[in-house]
Amino acid sequence: MILEYGDVSKVQGLPWYMLELRSEKTIESTMRRVGKALNGIFRHDPIEIFIPVIKRDLDVFEMSTGPYVFVRSNNFNALLRLKSVTGVVSLVTEGDTNRPNKAIAVEDDYVQGLIKQAEEEHRKRVVGIEVGSFVRILNGETRDFCGEVEIIGDGKAVIRVTLRTKSILLETPVRNLLNLSHVPKEQRVYYYSPLVENLFRDNPETATAMIEEDLHLDESVPMPEHTEEPPVEEPKKHSRQRTVTALVKKLVLIEGLHTPMEVAKAVVKALHNKEIKAPKNLFIVYCIIKDRLRQDYFAKIDPSLSNYRDVIKKYGKDYKFSAQQIAKLDPDLDIPVNTTEICKDGRSREARQKTKSKIQPASEVKKLAAKAKPEPKKKKKTPHDKCGECLHERKQHKLSPKGAWMRCTGISDHDIHPWVKAKGSGPCWCKRFKEKEK
Fold it and tell me: Are 404 and 432 in contact (CB under 8 A)?
């Protein structure tokens, strides 16, 4: 079995690496998880995985190399990320060092020999399958069910699986079958397994009677009576493909309509015939048409067109249209141009705006805002500003190491204010430069 992802022609001739799985009992489930994770791990890089399966049967998935599969890709780092999948250990390395640079590379010639051997075993598995053969289905919805071949040809076979109350006819490739023609006819039930084989070996006298009723279709079982019920009218459902957006994209990308009014005519016609879901108003149709035209057509020609106004400036007024023009295409369409929104209290948007205008007109609000005086800006302090406590200038105070204004000691006597001298105090009682609140 070979799993391929991406363009595997890029990895032809590259060496393989052995990938160790956690258990031989969970090989199939692990490889299913690996297959689902390839898209997220490798993205645009190819990978080829060879699973040397030699035996498939009921709950049996046996490989010739034990819990090891072979992988190769042109992105070695992505191969290392396979160990993030549950059930995968890592790439096999020299001396179990688990170092990426010690990963053991296997020559392509050796792996190709294993592939030929596995293909030969696969061909042997279907040898002898013919009309009337008892087979097991290996994959699909009826996996592990057993039945008889009724028709075979062109690599496909029709299998009849006989259950208790019905029989199933299934068409499947011959390679999806396991030949069980060696099973005796008295054991050929749809659930044949080693348990049935052991039952006949341990209790040969009673085993035949125990499964006899499962060998043939029981036609005596009454079928449930079918009573016709009156049809229930269900609300009409619209899928995502029956919307205005999906139709406009189809018209622009597939049918090649690039004039807005031509697209609008096709949309209005579909709305009239109820082929698509009707929007709340035609302004929505107008917005969808101009957005899809810009994104799906004009932006691919000129990526600098950031909005539909640029399209009109560049390509002319032929591309200018409005929701009112769309409404004139079919006056009987019964879809408003704009939808009037209703408030929670039942008033329309227009009524709400009128109420607001009565309370406070917008023009008066602007006049009042213009008359309002701006708040005076705080005046920046200069070195010549007075202290407010000692009546000294700011530059006469000492500075702390952090730059704060401190006690103004050390000032010569002639610099002291006359009012301070009159009080008979020391040089200055001010502790720091701080304006007093008046």
Answer: yes
Q: What pLDDT is stored for residue 438 in this prediction?
A: 37
pLDDT recorded at residue 287: 92
Residues 6+ apart with CB under 8 A from 238: 276, 277
Residue 201, Cβ neighbours under 10 Å: how many?
Answer: 9
Give me Rg for the CA atoms of the chain.
44
Distance CA 139, CA 150 (A): 19
**What confidence score (pLDDT) does residue 226 get?**
44
Q: Residue 288: what pLDDT?
A: 92
Residue-wise pLDDT for 108-157, tens only, equals 888 888 888 888 877 777 788 888 889 988 888 888 899 999 888 888 88
Cβ-contact 428, 390 below 8 angstroms: yes
Query: The domain 2-125 is classified under which CATH number: 3.90.550.10, 3.30.428.10, 3.30.70.940, 3.40.50.10490?
Result: 3.30.70.940
| CB < 8 Å & 24+ apart, contacts of 53-58 | 53/1, 53/118, 53/121, 53/122, 54/118, 54/121, 55/121, 56/125, 56/138, 56/178, 57/136, 57/178, 58/136, 58/144, 58/193, 58/194
Give domain limits for the chain. Answer: 2-125, 134-214, 244-333, 339-369, 382-438
d(CA 54, CA 116): 12
**Structural contact between residues 267 and 247, judged by C-beta atoms closer than 8 angstroms:** yes
Max Cα–Cα distance, the chain, nearest Å: 136
pLDDT tens readout for residues 382-405: 777 766 666 667 666 766 666 666
Please indicate whether residue 217 or residue 171 has the higher confidence score (pLDDT).
Answer: 171
CA distance readout (Å), 142 to 61, 137, 402: 18, 7, 86
